[in-house]
Write a structure and sequence with these properties.
Elements: E1 7-8, H1 14-23, H2 28-46, E2 49-52, H3 54-69, E3 81-85, H4 112-119, E4 123-128, E5 148-149, E6 152-156, H5 162-169, E7 175-180, H6 186-192, E8 195-198, E9 218-223, H7 226-236, E10 253-256, H8 266-274, E11 281-283, H9 287-312, H10 319-328, H11 333-356, E12 359-363, E13 376-379, E14 382-385, H12 386-391, H13 396-400, E15 404-412, E16 415-422, H14 428-442, E17 446-447
Parallel strand pairs: 3-4, 3-7, 10-11, 10-12
Antiparallel strand pairs: 1-17, 2-4, 5-6, 7-9, 8-9, 8-15, 12-16, 13-14, 15-16
Helix pairs in contact: 2-3, 9-10, 9-11
C-alpha cells in the first residue's frame, strides 16, 4: 500500500485553508495571490489553465476578506480559489471548449454551477483546459495544446477535465470544477493523484455547460481530498448527501475485478484493492453491457450536437476528434433507441446488487498515466486501445447515473493509482466516509508530484 507512494501534506485542504482564513493567519487575498503565483511558476510547463483572471480573482478575494471582517461568512468555500473547466461559462472569460470553432468566444453570464460557487464565496481564478469538446479521455487534444501530468510532464493528464486535475495536483487551486460524461473527472483524478467526484445524475445543474452527450453528462469536482470534493458538492449540488452513516469501517464492499474487456495491470489493481478498509467480495455487475450502451448513447448524442459543424467546417476540429465524430455518425439509430431503453433494466439489476453491497469498488483506471500521444497501451503483455482502457471502469456509471468517486490509492512505478468507489443515489455520505477511512489508512491526504 505504501509501496513508493510519496504521501505529502504540502497541498492544504479546504478545511485547513478555511481555518487559516478565519483565524487571521491568512487572508483571501493572500490565498488568491499564492494561487496566481503558483500558476505563473508552473503552468507554462503543464498547461492546466487556458485563461487566468488575475484581476477578477483579486477583486473577489478582497470582497471575501471584507465580508469576513464584517461578520459575513458564506461557508467553507468562502475565499477559496477555484478553477473552472473551459466547457463551463464564466461571465466575461473565454469559453472555447478547447476548439478552434469557439476561439475568441467569451461567456456572457455565469453557468448555474459557477453562480452557486460565487454565492458560496469561492474565488474564480480562471479557466482550465479540456480535451476538445470534452470528446476524449486522454486530455491531449485541444486548441491550446495538451495538459501535462505533474508527476511526469511527458505523460497525459487524462481527460477530458485534464486542466482541472493538473491544477489541483500541481497546487494551483485546491478545488476545480469539471464535467464527466464517461469518466472525464475520475480518469484525470486517478492519473494525477487527486480526488474526483461524479455526483448522481441531475444533482448539479448543467445550465451554461456545453454538452457532450446530454443524457450522460454530469458536472463534477476535483480536489485535493475527497472531503474537499464533498465540501464543494454541498455548495453547488442538491440534494445534500445525508448524514454520516457511522459504519464506514464495516461497509460491505463488492470488488469489480479486471477482465478481458476491463483490462488492468496486476500491480495497479493490487494497489487499488489493498487500499480498501477490509477485504472485499468479488462481484460481477453488468458493466460490459453498460459499456456497449454507453458507446451507442454517447456517439449518437455527441454527433447530434456536432453534425452541422462537421458538415460545414470540419477543418476546425482536431483531426482525432473529427475522426471520432465521423465514426459516431455511423452508429445506427436503432442501437441508440435500444441502449436508452436498456437503462432502466440495468438500474434494476444494480439495485438488487446494492441490496447485498453498500458500495462497489474497482481501480478507477487500469493503468498509470500513458505517454502523451500514446494510443495503444500494454497491459500485462497484451495491447489495448488507450481510450477503451481509460474508460473501461468509469463509463458504465454514467449510463445509470450513479455517484462515483475516485481517490488516490498509492503509486506504481512512481505514478498515481486511483481507487473508484460507487454507490446508489442517496448513499453518498457512506461513499465519503469510506474514502476518509482509506485516506487515514494511507496516512495522508494525497500523493503529491
Amino acid at each position: 500500500m505504501a509501496n513508493a507512494a510519496r504521501m505529502s501534506r504540502d497541498l492544504p485542504s479546504v478545511t485547513e485553508l478555511g481555518s487559516a482564513l478565519r483565524s487571521g493567519r491568512a487572508s483571501a487575498r493572500e490565498l488568491a495571490r499564492r494561487s496566481l503565483d503558483t500558476i505563473a511558476a508552473r503552468d507554462a510547463a503543464l498547461g492546466a489553465f487556458v485563461a487566468v483572471d488575475a484581476e477578477g480573482a483579486m477583486a473577489a478575494a478582497a470582497a471575501a476578506d471584507a465580508e469576513l471582517a464584517a461578520g459575513t461568512d458564506r461557508g467553507p468555500l468562502h475565499g477559496i480559489p477555484v478553477g473552472v473547466k473551459d466547457l463551463i461559462d464564466v461571465a466575461g472569460l473565454p469559453v472555447t471548449m478547447g476548439s478552434a470553432h469557439f476561439a475568441g468566444h467569451v461567456a456572457a453570464e455565469d453557468a448555474a454551477c459557477v453562480r452557486r460557487l460565487r454565492e458560496a464565496g469561492a474565488v474564480i481564478v480562471g479557466k482550465t483546459a479540456t480535451h476538445e469538446f470534452a470528446y476524449g479521455p486522454t486530455g491531449d487534444r485541444s486548441l491550446q495544446g495538451p495538459a501535462r501530468n505533474p508527476w511526469d510532464p511527458a505523460r497525459m493528464a487524462g481527460g477530458s477535465s485534464s486542466g482541472s486535475a493538473v491544477a489541483v495536483a500541481a497546487g494551483m487551486v485546491p478545488v476545480a470544477v469539471g464535467t464527466d460524461t464517461g469518466g472525464s473527472v475520475r480518469i484525470p483524478a486517478a492519473l494525477c493523484g487527486v480526488a474526483g467526484f461524479k455526483p448522481a445524475a441531475g444533482t448539479v445543474a448543467d445550465a451554461g455547460v456545453f454538452p457532450l452527450a446530454q443524457s450522460l453528462d454530469h458536472v463534477g469536482l476535483l480536489a485535493t481530498t475527497a472531503e474537499d470534493c464533498l465540501t464543494a458538492y454541498l455548495a453547488i449540488g442538491s440534494p445534500p448527501p445525508g448524514r454520516r452513516a457511522g459504519r464506514a469501517s464495516r461497509a460491505r464492499i463488492g470488488w469489480v475485478a479486471p477482465s478481458s474487456r476491463r483490462p488492468a495491470a496486476e500491480a495497479v489493481a493490487a494497489v487499488a484493492e489493498r487500499a480498501l478498509p477490509a477485504p472485499p467480495e468479488p462481484v460481477e455487475p453488468p458493466l460490459d453491457e453498460l459499456r456497449d450502451d454507453f458507446v451507442a448513447i454517447q456517439s449518437s448524442e455527441a454527433y447530434a450536437i456536432h453534425a452541422d459543424r462537421v458538415a460545414e467546417r470540419p477543418d476546425r476540429y482536431d483531426p482525432e476528434v473529427l475522426d471520432r465524430l465521423k465514426a459516431a455518425a455511423r452508429v445506427p439509430g436503432w442501437r441508440y433507441v435500444r441502449a436508452m431503453a436498456a437503462r432502466d433494466r440495468h438500474r434494476a439489476r444494480l439495485d438488487a446488487l446494492f441490496e447485498r453491497f453498500d458500495l462497489l469498488a474497482s481501480p478507477t483506471v487500469g493503468v498509470t498515466a500513458p505517454l502523451l500521444g500514446e494510443r495503444v497501451v500494454a497491459v500485462d503483455g497484451a495491447e489495448h486501445p488507450v481510450r477503451d482502457t481509460l474508460l473501461a471502469f468509469t463509463s458504465p456509471w454514467n449510463v445509470v447515473g450513479h455517484p462515483a468517486l475516485s481517490i488516490p490509492a498509492g503509486t506504481v512505478s512512481g505514478l498515481p493509482v486511483g481507487l473508484q468507489l460507487v454507490c446508489p443515489p442517496g448513499r453518498e455520505r457512506l461513499l465519503f466516509d469510506v474514502a476518509a477511512v482509506v485516506a487515514h489508512r494511507l496516512g495522508a491526504s494525497t500523493p503529491t508530484p
